[in-house]
Specification:
Residues 1-57 form a coiled coil. The structure is a single chain. The protein is mainly α. It has one domain. 93% of the residues lie in helices and 0% in strands. The two termini are 42 Å apart. The relative contact order is 0.10. The mean pLDDT is 81.
C-alpha cells in the first residue's frame, strides 16, 4: 500500500470510529428523549387535573392552584424545548 492509501485508510477508520460513537450517542439521546417525553406526558395529565380543580374551586384557593398550573405549564414548555434540542 502506498503512503496515500495508508492516509486514506486511516481517514476512513477515524470516520468509522466517529460514526460508531455517534450511533451510541444517538441511541442514548433517543432513550433520554423517551424518558423526557414520558415525564412531560405525566405533567400534561397533571395540568388537566389542575384545570378541572380550577373550574370547580373559587376564591383564594383557585389562585394557588392557578399559580401551580402556570409553573407546571412552564416546566412542560421547557421540557419540549429540551426535547427539540435532543432531536
Amino acid at each position: 500500500m502506498s503512503e496515500h492509501d495508508d492516509k486514506l485508510m486511516s481517514l476512513l477508520e477515524r470516520l468509522e470510529r466517529e460514526r460508531d460513537e455517534l450511533k451510541v450517542k444517538i441511541g442514548l439521546a433517543k432513550l433520554e428523549a423517551r424518558e423526557e417525553w414520558q415525564e412531560l406526558e405525566g405533567k400534561i395529565q397533571g395540568l388537566r387535573g389542575r384545570m378541572k380543580v380550577l373550574k370547580e374551586e373559587a376564591g383564594d384557593a383557585s389562585s394557588d392552584v392557578g399559580a401551580a398550573f402556570d409553573m407546571m405549564a412552564e416546566e412542560v414548555k421547557e421540557g419540549f424545548a429540551r426535547l427539540k434540542k435532543l432531536l
